[in-house]
Amino acid sequence: MSAYDRKAYKMDLSRAKASLAELMRKYTVVAPVMKDGRLDYAEISDVDDVVLDERLPYKSPKEVVFPRVEDVMRFLENRAEEAQEIKPVLLVGAKPCDVSALRVLDEIFIGDKGRFKDSFYQNRRNCLTVVGMGCQEAKPGCFCEERGIDPAFSSDCDGFLDPVDGGLVYEPLTEKGEGLFPGTETEPVRRGPEAGTAGPKTETDPTGEGGKRAKKLEIDASEAEVFTTMPWEAYTEGCIGCGTCTYICPTCHCFNLRDAEEKGIVTRTRVWDSCMYPKFTLHAGGHNPRTKKFERFRQRVLHKYLYIPENFGLTACTGCGRCIRSCPGGLNIRNTVSDIMKRLKESKEPAEAKKTEEAEI
Amino acid sequence: MSERTEIRNAVPAETPGALQAETAGAVQAETAGTVSEEWTPRIIAFLCNWCSYAGADLAGTSRIQYPPSIRVIRVPCSGRVNPQYIIKALADGADGVMVSGCHPGDCHYLEGNYYARRRFSVLKRLLSLAGFHPDRVQFTWVSASEGAKFADVVATVTEKVRVLGPSKVRASKHWESDSRAAGPGDSEQSERKEGE
Amino acid sequence: MDRNTGNTKQSGANCGTGVDCEKHSDMNFGSGVDYESQARRLKGTAAKLLKEGTVTAVMGLRENEEAGQPTPCFARTPEDAENLVWNEACFTNLANYLMETAGKVAIAAKPCDVRSIINLLSENQLKRENFTIIGMECSGKIKDGKLAPGCDACPSSIPNLYDIAIGADGSEAWKDLEMANTAENVTEWAKTTTVDERYERFMKEIDKCILCFACRQACQGCYCVTCFIDRKATPWEQVDADTSTKMAFHLTRAMHLAGRCTDCGACEKVCPSGVNLKYLFKGLSEFIEETYGFKAGVDPEAVPVMSRYSVDDPQVAFLGGDCIVGL
Q: How does DSSP assign B76-116, residue by residue?
């Protein structure tokens, strides 16, 4: 079925907000809102706070499935209890980079390639409905297209919203997405130029820009080829180990499970951890294999671009650029991977690499 | 919101750097809820082994009564008391904290209480800036022979804290959703909630 | 306009302290500096030092469009020196990197960076002969369209310590520029507020905090190999990083920085949640200066104030003054 044959509906913004107000009765709605002068994903209490436009929120929405602090289990005298089912969550306005990130988290936590399904994540994921939204912001640092993501459309969600002149075009993509905005079918439209949307990219026109190909950013090499041969210290020079990159990243998912006992009841809590913290790999015996910051940054990059692809078949970086924009030390994962790709190419076929580069410029 | 009162609280005007603290009483009680006459504050008391702890012991053997509000932690010297402990006690809901040591010049370890004095002056200013009523944290010097004085000190400190009402930390909205469960003797047990 | 926040505020009553005060509506935007000349002289100096081999690296900042601000750059060859920039957005404090580098380095340091360096020298964390300070005259930097955190409290455009002087016009002469001096006096603020109001302000900031510890990482005074909050033997951090932990962390950090904080503002600059708790550190600095006559970041030979005492120390903030609880 051609991508253009899917049913999409146009509605004006006020109608969309009215639907959201209705949905708030059944769902906890998380959407972009302005908070202290900054656009961020947050739980909304007033539908008028919702901002549905082309901009990218500052932080990622991963907390809807992976909260920063989460009580996951309780151990009582003779039984263990897992977290109860929570009120359904509707994430509206998730940009394609963030939607793709959710897919990465799904693969890792509950995917088939993993040996174990995380029931705490599963619980939250089951209760989550995702409505994506087109992004036209391309902030400095954004490189989603180099990661093969189309900022104008994502099919990995339950429904997709496109901001157009006069309102929004909504396209349900799964059963969960059907009927989310009922009674707003003013007239079905085809997604594409006629509706004012960017339209899904096709195989013959992967960027929709008639010819210019974005080079796919990935590390196509073995660990041995990059572990010691790349200038990791130079890539990591400004790092202060603050961990902001991992907190703000939509795919970062390292965590600690901690137990605390109070009055005979033990509660197990999951909290975020960060591989960039100096003590991340501190062993109980006192040894720490990653005391140097370049070792930690190397791990972070290779985890996303090498180890997860090897184990789960997809690269765990969606090119949202948030880490690049928020790093006070100037670290840049995109430039790092790009430099690695260049060095790998040069080391394999130095003469040929130079020729191809000149042709591409 | 409360009015800004400028009633001094037993602090002489000339004391350098003294902050005009609001008096206890009505405002604090309002914030904290009704303060019953029977309510006894929970005060953590760090007592130095050589002077204050001995003084407290003397009060005991002399059968001098004082309010059952303090929970004593014996330390070798008031200089041993890390400001962290006081902060932690307050953050975990203690109604008041008291540190008592040897008189300046009489420290068993010669200098410990001098360091303590400087440290606690700074700590008290910090707590006051962060919105903890200065009356909740008291520093005193009680020697081993001052049993009656110790009882007086505890009575005074208890009263000062009592009129302020229960710890604001426990009354705040965080108390319910945080992991800290209510302590023994409290009427409410807070249920642990799901992560937010 | 700030790319991340879309903030176009140029000036106004909100200087980031969270306190509405008409004093803050008139901002001095770090004017009086010829950045081009300073940058040119910095690059030239760096290239020269590297060519002579006096230093193995020059620490400064380079342009970084994606980060939206200049970011740290360690120039190691005279050619690298061309990447160094100097402008009104160069607010990053580089002093911490001195703790990591081996060999002799040079550092482009503003007055606030130099105060941090002096504090570290006074605590024997750095060896003076291992680095060359290229002092950069500065009357304030800009972040998010307004005066950067910390700049409002800076007393002077001239660094307290330097080996090479780069004045406001790029020459070796200091101009001694007018400073913004719009920082709130925390002690005065405290005198005019109730305890409840102060608690509210504290809790409002704490609520934003996500305990990422970026402030601690960026701070020059926080160099402990194992921070107290990381200790697990007695867990200071509650398992769910709750409010009580946040209170304990920030108040304890304030105590650990008492008399050592140099008001550089790095903590607030680096915080991803926009938390401003440096007013507590400043309040303590004011108290310590008033009571013990000590100011951090002035004298590299000074003995840190909290590591000594005087038998005449006043019992201020002890209720009743010199008396014990009024008895």
A: S-GGG--HHHHHHHHHTT-SEEEEEEPPTT--TTSSHHHHH
